[in-house]
Specification:
Layout (H helix, E strand, L loop, with lengths): L4 H9 L4 H8 L3 H10 L4 H5 L4 E8 L2 E8 L13 H8 L4 E8 L2 H17 L9
Antiparallel strand pairs: 1-2, 1-3
């Protein structure tokens, strides 16, 4: 079974990668690309790729990392400095939550810093440096 147009819209709006969607349905990511084209969807528009995002990484419901960047950065583990964080991401144990979208990178970075301070005070965001 493949995703419906409505499901694709939801997945893309949640900034999921084509690979993530394909994994759910047990197909190759090229099939997802074909479906996106077939339904006439603009994945860049749905993902709001021109926005800067602020996101949380959660482990068992606790914030372990606050980050910002382009839409796909929250899922990348290759750029993680902390080996434990990287391994948790590789193992699929980290959940992602987008908490802000900004037109300017500076605004996203400021919000990210604010959230890091907030979660550090709560004893969370252990993978963030101050």
């Amino acid at each position: 079974m493949l995703p419906t147009k409505e499901e694709l819209i939801e997945y893309l709006s949640n900034k999921m990668t084509n690979q993530d969607i394909a994994k759910i349905y047990g197909v190759k990511f090229q099939k997802i690309i074909q479906l996106i084209k077939k339904h006439g969807l603009d994945s860049n528009e749905l993902r709001k790729v021109n926005k800067y995002t602020v996101y949380l990484h959660l482990l068992n419901g606790e914030v372990v990392y606050v980050g910002s960047g382009v839409w796909y950065r929250c899922r990348r583990y290759t750029n993680r400095r902390n080996s434990e964080h990287k391994q948790l991401m590789q193992d699929g144990k980290i959940e992602y939550k987008f908490v802000g979208e900004f037109d300017r990178e500076e605004d996203a970075r400021n919000y990210e810093r604010k959230l890091i301070k907030k979660y550090k005070k709560l004893g969370q965001a252990k993978f963030n440096k101050i």
